[in-house]
C-alpha cells in the first residue's frame, strides 16, 4: 500500500494550497458532487474479480487534491476519508477505508429501485430457480417491478464541514496579517508568513491516527509453536509456515462470517415476524441464496486444514486438501451470479418495511457484526474465492522444489481461477439481464412511435448508460448493443417512468460528431461519415504500406483534447436515413464526454466486424475532386481496369499499377455515362458535345484510347444518338443490346441497337460519307418503340425489356413491341402500390422464378404473372435510395449517407456502410439460375459466332493487347463501384477473401467478367 508522505508541521497542511479550489473545500457536499462528476469510473479487476463502475484509491486522492488545489496528499486523503465515513463510496470488499493506493478499488454507494409497485415482470431467469437455502426443493422467482432506477443525484450527498479547510469568519482576516482570533484556520499560515513564533496557549493538533490502517495479522505461526521449533527451520520455511497459517486462520474467519449470516440474520428472520410470513421464505432465499451450501463446503475445508495444523507443528503440505475440496466450489459461482438480485431484494425490503429497517440497524450494531453492514458480509463469498489464488501463490512462492505442493498447488490455483472466470461471466450476465428487464418495464413510448428493442432477448446487452444535458433539462441515455435510446425521467403519483425522448437510433445508422471533429476537420463538416465508408481489406492496407500512405479506419476514435472552454463537451447524435434527425447533448465533464465517444465507437466497430458481408477496396483517392468530380465508371479486363466519366472527360485507370493515377484518354465535357462492351472492343459514352451543347451517345474503339493524347481518340468517335436522356446495355433475346432513351415529361422514345462485331466492321470498307461521319458503324438498329410517359430506368429480362416510368414498371416485348404493366391490376394486395402517386420504380431483379421489385420506399416480390408473392415479405428502406445493386444473396440500396445491405430471402438488414455524398457508379447483376440458361434460347447471332457474346474471340479476330479468357456463359460483371466525396471504391463480398481480392486486382491471368452493363 502506498503510504502518504509525512508532514513536519501543521503549517504544511495549508502551505501547498496555491490555486483557487474548484469548489469551497470545507463543505463536504460540494466536494462530493465535484468528485463524483470528475472521477473516471470503469470496469476494474481486483484478485481476478471484475467490479463495475469502480475507481482506485490513487485516482480518488489525485482527484480530491485537484478539486481542493493542494499538493498535500495527506490532506486530500483525510478529506476523502471524511466522504468515505458517510458511505459516499466504499471499498469493493468492505474491508477498509480509503487508501492512497492504485491496488485498492472503490465504488459509489448505489441506491437500487424504490418499492413503488404497479405490476410484476415475468420471471427474470429460470436459471435462478434454486432449492430454498439448501435442503427443501422449491421454485423461487425473482420479481421485478415497474420502478425507477434512481439517478445518482437521488442518493444523498455527504454533509458536514471539514474544519481544516474552512475560511475565517472575520471579514478583516487576510493571509498577510495576523488574525485576532486564536481559532482562525489561517493563523498558522499567517504566523509562518510573518516569521512569528507560535504563541502559547491552545494549539491545533492534527490526528494522523486514521491515515494508516493497522492490519489485523491474526495469530502468527511463530507464536503458535515453541521457540525450539522456530529455531529449527530455515528462514524460507518460516515464511512458508506463516503463509500456510494465513490460509488456515483466514479460512476460519470466513466460515465464522458465514455462520454469523446464518445465525444473526437467517435464523432470526425465520423466527421473527419482521417479514410477513407469506413471503418470508422467498425473501430469505433471494437475499442469502445458497449460503448454506457455501458453509457446508468451507466447513469441510476449514476442519481439514485445522486438523492438519493440530497434527503437525510444521505443516508439510496443504495442496492435497485443496485438491480434494476445490472442485466442489460450484456454489460460489451460483452465489455470485445471483448476488445482484439478493441486493435488490434487501434494499427494496429495507426501504418499504420499517420493521425490517429497524431490525437491520439493530443487527448491524451487534458486537458480532464488527461495525460492518450486511452488504459487507454478502460480498465475502465472492471475495473469498478471489483471495484463494493469492494466498496459495504466496505459499507456492516459498515452497521448495522437492515438496509435493510444488506440483499440487498450481493445479489447485488453476481450478479456482476457472471458477472465478465463471463468476465474472455469470454475474455480468445477471447484471445485464437485471438492468434490461427493469428498463423494459420503465420505458414509455409516445403513441404510434413504439419500437421493439428486444430488451427481453437473452442476447441483448446494455453497454453503457448515463446522463447527458440538453438546453432545457437532462436526458438519461442508454447505449444498447444495437441501438441508442434517449429517455426523459418522468415521475407521477402512481409510477416513475422513462419516456422515450426521440426515436431510438440503430447503431448502424448513428453518426456521432463532437467538437474535436470540427476542430480537426477545419471546415465544419465532420469526416466521420467519410471514414465510416473506408474499411479497407488487409490486402489493401498492405498496398498502402507499400505506397507509404495511410487512411483512417472506420469512424476513427476521437482524441479528446484538453479544452476548458465552456460548451466544448457537446455531442451531436445524427439518425441517418429516412427518419433523419439530429440531437445535440452536452456531457458534464471531459471524462464523461470521452467515455461516451469511445464507448459508442467501440460498439459500432464491434457491430461492423460482426455483421460485415462486404468490404471496401480503395481504387482512387484525392484525384477526382472539385470541378472534376467522377460521374460514372465501368470496369473491364477482369475488373483490373476502370474507365471513369468526369466533368472533364474520360479517364482510364490500371489497378495493377498501384502508384499510377488515372490518366485522361478522351477530352469530352460532362460525361454522364460510360460502358464497355469488351467483346466488341467498344467504349460507349454519354456526354455533352462542345459544338451543339446537347447530350449525345458516342462510341469509341478501345484501341483508340491514347493516354498520351486525349484528342486522338476523338478522331475515331462515332455519334450514335443526340438529345439522349440515358442509355443501358444488357442481354436480352440472346443478344447484346444497347437501349438509348430520349425521355420527356410526357413521353419516352426507345431505340435498341446491336453492336457489330469488330472483325466484320473492320473488313468492310467505309464509304466516303461514312468517313465524314466518323468511320464504320459500331451499332446497328434492332427495335424502336414509344411509351407515352416519362421513363427513368431500363432493366433487361430474359426475353423482355422492363421500363421504370411514372406509371410503375412496364414490360415491353421486343419482338411484338407490345407494352403492359408489370403488376396485375386484379391483385388487391398491390393496392398499397397503386394508391401511391410519388413512388419511383428503380430496379427489378429476377430471383429464381420471382421478381424483386425495388422502389424508392420499399421492395417486395411478384411472380411472373405480376401478382404479389411472399406476402409476408416487405423491405422498407431505412434510407432514400438513389441506386440499387444485386449480389446474391444480398440487395444493396445506395443513398447519399450510407449503403444499406439486406438479405433477399429474409429482407433483414445485414450491414450498413456509412459514407459522405455516396453515389453508385456501376453495378451489374450476375444472372440468376433461371437467367443463366441462355443457351436454351433458339436464336443465332448473324455474325457467325453464335449467340454467345462471352465466347472466346474468333481465330481471325484481331485481339486487344490485354485480352483475357472469358468466364463461362451466364456469368456477369459483379463489380460494384461507388464514390464518396473524392474516393472511388469497390464493394467486394467478404467471402471472397483477401487472397481472391489480390488475385482479382493484380494477377495477369484473371478471368474476364464481361456481361454488358
Q: Are there runs of 5+ residues with pLDDT below 50, and where?
A: 1-17, 114-153, 200-204, 206-218, 522-532, 534-566, 768-775, 926-972, 997-1013
Average predicted local confidence, pLDDT: 79
CATH superfamily of the largest domain: YVTN repeat-like/Quinoprotein amine dehydrogenase
Mind telling me the CATH class of the largest domain? Mainly Beta
- Structural class by helix and strand composition: alpha+beta
CATH fold-level name of the largest domain: Methylamine Dehydrogenase, Chain H
Straight-line N-to-C gap: 72 Å
Quickly count the helices: 23
Per CATH, which architecture of the largest domain? Answer: 7 Propeller
Oligomer: single chain
Radius of gyration: 39 Å
Strand neighbour order, sheet with most strands: 5-9-8-7-6
- The share of residues in extended strands comes to 15-25%
Q: In total, how many domains does the architecture comprise?
A: 4
What is the 3D shape?
elongated
User: Major beta sheet, specifics?
Assistant: 5 strands, mixed
Helix content: 25-40%
Number of strands: 41
GO molecular function: guanyl-nucleotide exchange factor activity
Keywords: Guanine-nucleotide releasing factor, Phosphoprotein
Organism: Crepidotus variabilis
Biased composition (Basic and acidic residues): 537-547
Amino acid at each position: 500500500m502506498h503510504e502518504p508522505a509525512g508532514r513536519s508541521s501543521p503549517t504544511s497542511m495549508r502551505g501547498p494550497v496555491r490555486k483557487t479550489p474548484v469548489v469551497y473545500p470545507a463543505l463536504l457536499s460540494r466536494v462530493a458532487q465535484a468528485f463524483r462528476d470528475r472521477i473516471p469510473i470503469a470496469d476494474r479487476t481486483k484478485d481476478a474479480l471484475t467490479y463495475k463502475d469502480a475507481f482506485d484509491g490513487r485516482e480518488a486522492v489525485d482527484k480530491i487534491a485537484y478539486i481542493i488545489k493542494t499538493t498535500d496528499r495527506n490532506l486530500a486523503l483525510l478529506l476523502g476519508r471524511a466522504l468515505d465515513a458517510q458511505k459516499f463510496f466504499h471499498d469493493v470488499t468492505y474491508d477498509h477505508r480509503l487508501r492512497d493506493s492504485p491496488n485498492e478499488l472503490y465504488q459509489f454507494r448505489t441506491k437500487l429501485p424504490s418499492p413503488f409497485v404497479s405490476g410484476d415482470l415475468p420471471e427474470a431467469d429460470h436459471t435462478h430457480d434454486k432449492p430454498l437455502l439448501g435442503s427443501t426443493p422449491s421454485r423461487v422467482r425473482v420479481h421485478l417491478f415497474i420502478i425507477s432506477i434512481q439517478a445518482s443525484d437521488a442518493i444523498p450527498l455527504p454533509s458536514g464541514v471539514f474544519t481544516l479547510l474552512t475560511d475565517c469568519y472575520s471579514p478583516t482576516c487576510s493571509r498577510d496579517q495576523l488574525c485576532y482570533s486564536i481559532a482562525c484556520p489561517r493563523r498558522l499560515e499567517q504566523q509562518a508568513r510573518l516569521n512569528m513564533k507560535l504563541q502559547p496557549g491552545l494549539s491545533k493538533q492534527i490526528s494522523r491516527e486514521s491515515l494508516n490502517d493497522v492490519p489485523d495479522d491474526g495469530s502468527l505461526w511463530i507464536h503458535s509453536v515453541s521457540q525450539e521449533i522456530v529455531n529449527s527451520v530455515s528462514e524460507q520455511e518460516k515464511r512458508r509456515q506463516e503463509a500456510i497459517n494465513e490460509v488456515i486462520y483466514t479460512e476460519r474467519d470466513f466460515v465464522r462470517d458465514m455462520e454469523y449470516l446464518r445465525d444473526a440474520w437467517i435464523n432470526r428472520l425465520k423466527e421473527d415476524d419482521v417479514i410477513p410470513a407469506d413471503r418470508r421464505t422467498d425473501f430469505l432465499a433471494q437475499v442469502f441464496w445458497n449460503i448454506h451450501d457455501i458453509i457446508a463446503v468451507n466447513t469441510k475445508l476449514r476442519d481439514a486444514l485445522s486438523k492438519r495444523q493440530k497434527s503437525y507443528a510444521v505443516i508439510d503440505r496443504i495442496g492435497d486438501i485443496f485438491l480434494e475440496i476445490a472442485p466442489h466450489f460450484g456454489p460460489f459461482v451460483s452465489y455470485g451470479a445471483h448476488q445482484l438480485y439478493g441486493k435488490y431484494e434487501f434494499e427494496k425490503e429495507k426501504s418499504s418495511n420499517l420493521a425490517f429497517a429497524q431490525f437491520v440497524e439493530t443487527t448491524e450494531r451487534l458486537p458480532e457484526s464488527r461495525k460492518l453492514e450486511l452488504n459487507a458480509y454478502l460480498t465475502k463469498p465472492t471475495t473469498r474465492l478471489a483471495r484463494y489464488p493469492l494466498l496459495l501463490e504466496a505459499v507456492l512462492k516459498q515452497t521448495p522444489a522437492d515438496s509435493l505442493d510444488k506440483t499440487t498447488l498450481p493445479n489447485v490455483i488453476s481450478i479456482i481461477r476457472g471458477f472465478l472466470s465463471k463468476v465474472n461471466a455469470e454475474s455480468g450476465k445477471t447484471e445485464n439481464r437485471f438492468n434490461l428487464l427493469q428498463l423494459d418495464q420503465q420505458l414509455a413510448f409516445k403513441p404510434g412511435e413504439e419500437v421493439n428493442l428486444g430488451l427481453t432477448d437473452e442476447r441483448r446487452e446494455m453497454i453503457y448508460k448515463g446522463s447527458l444535458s440538453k438546453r432545457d433539462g437532462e436526458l438519461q441515455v442508454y447505449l444498447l448493443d444495437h441501438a441508442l435510446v434517449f429517455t426523459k425521467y418522468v415521475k407521477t403519483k402512481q409510477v416513475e417512468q422513462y419516456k422515450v425522448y426521440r426515436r431510438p437510433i440503430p447503431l448502424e445508422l448513428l453518426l456521432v460528431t463532437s467538437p474535436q471533429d470540427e476542430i480537426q476537420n477545419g471546415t465544419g463538416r465532420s469526416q466521420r461519415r467519410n471514414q465510416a465508408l473506408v474499411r479497407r481489406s488487409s490486402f489493401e492496407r498492405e498496398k498502402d504500406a507499400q505506397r507509404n500512405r495511410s487512411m483512417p479506419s472506420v469512424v476513427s476514435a476521437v482524441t479528446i483534447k484538453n479544452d476548458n472552454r465552456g460548451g466544448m463537451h457537446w455531442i451531436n447524435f445524427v439518425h441517418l436515413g429516412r427518419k433523419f434527425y439530429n440531437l445535440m447533448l452536452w456531457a458534464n465533464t471531459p471524462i464523461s464526454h470521452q467515455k461516451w465517444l469511445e464507448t459508442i465507437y467501440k460498439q459500432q466497430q464491434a457491430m461492423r466486424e460482426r455483421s460485415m458481408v462486404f468490404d471496401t477496396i480503395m481504387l482512387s483517392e484525392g484525384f477526382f475532386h472539385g470541378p472534376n468530380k467522377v460521374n460514372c465508371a465501368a470496369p473491364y479486363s477482369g475488373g483490373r481496369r476502370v474507365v471513369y466519366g468526369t466533368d472533364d472527360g474520360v479517364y482510364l485507370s490500371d489497378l495493377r499499377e498501384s502508384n499510377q493515377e488515372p490518366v485522361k484518354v478522351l477530352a469530352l465535357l460532362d460525361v454522364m455515362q460510360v460502358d464497355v462492351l469488351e467483346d466488341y472492343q467498344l467504349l460507349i459514352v454519354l456526354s455533352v458535345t462542345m459544338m451543339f451543347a446537347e447530350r449525345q451517345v458516342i462510341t469509341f474503339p478501345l484501341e483508340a484510347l491514347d493516354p498520351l493524347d486525349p484528342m486522338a481518340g476523338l478522331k475515331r468517335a462515332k455519334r450514335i444518338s443526340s438529345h439522349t436522356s440515358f442509355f443501358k446495355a444488357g442481354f436480352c433475346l440472346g443478344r447484346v443490346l444497347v437501349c438509348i432513351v430520349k425521355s420527356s415529361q410526357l413521353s419516352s422514345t426507345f431505340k435498341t441497337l446491336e453492336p457489330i462485331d469488330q472483325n466484320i466492321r473492320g473488313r468492310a470498307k467505309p464509304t466516303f460519307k461514312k468517313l465524314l461521319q466518323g468511320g464504320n458503324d459500331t451499332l446497328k438498329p434492332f427495335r424502336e418503340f414509344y411509351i407515352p410517359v416519362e421513363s427513368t430506368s431500363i432493366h433487361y429480362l430474359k426475353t423482355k425489356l422492363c421500363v421504370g416510368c411514372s406509371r410503375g414498371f412496364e414490360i415491353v416485348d421486343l419482338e411484338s413491341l407490345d407494352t403492359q404493366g408489370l403488376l396485375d391490376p386484379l391483385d388487391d394486395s398491390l393496392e398499397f402500390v397503386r394508391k401511391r402517386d410519388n413512388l419511383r420504380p428503380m430496379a427489378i431483379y429476377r430471383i429464381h422464378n420471382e421478381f424483386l421489385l425495388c422502389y424508392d420506399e420499399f421492395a417486395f416480390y411478384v411472380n411472373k404473372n405480376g401478382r404479389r408473392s411472399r406476402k409476408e415479405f416487405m423491405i422498407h428502406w431505412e434510407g432514400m435510395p438513389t441506386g440499387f445493386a444485386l449480389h446474391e444473396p444480398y440487395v444493396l440500396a445506395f443513398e447519399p449517407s450510407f449503403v444499406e445491405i439486406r438479405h433477399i430471402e429474409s429482407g433483414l438488414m445485414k450491414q450498413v456502410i456509412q459514407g459522405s455524398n455516396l453515389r453508385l457508379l456501376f453495378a451489374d447483376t450476375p444472372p440468376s439460375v433461371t437467367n443463366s440458361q441462355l443457351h436454351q434460347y433458339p436464336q443465332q447471332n448473324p455474325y457467325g459466332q453464335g449467340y454467345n457474346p462471352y465466347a472466346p474471340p474468333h481465330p481471325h479476330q484481331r485481339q486487344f493487347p490485354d485480352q483475357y479468357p472469358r468466364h463461362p456463359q451466364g456469368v456477369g460483371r459483379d463489380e460494384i463501384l461507388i464514390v464518396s466525396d473524392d474516393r472511388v471504391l469497390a464493394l467486394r463480398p467478404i467471402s471472397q477473401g483477401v487472397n481472391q481480392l489480390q488475385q482479382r486486382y493484380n494477377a495477369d491471368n484473371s478471368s474476364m467478367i464481361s456481361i454488358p452493363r
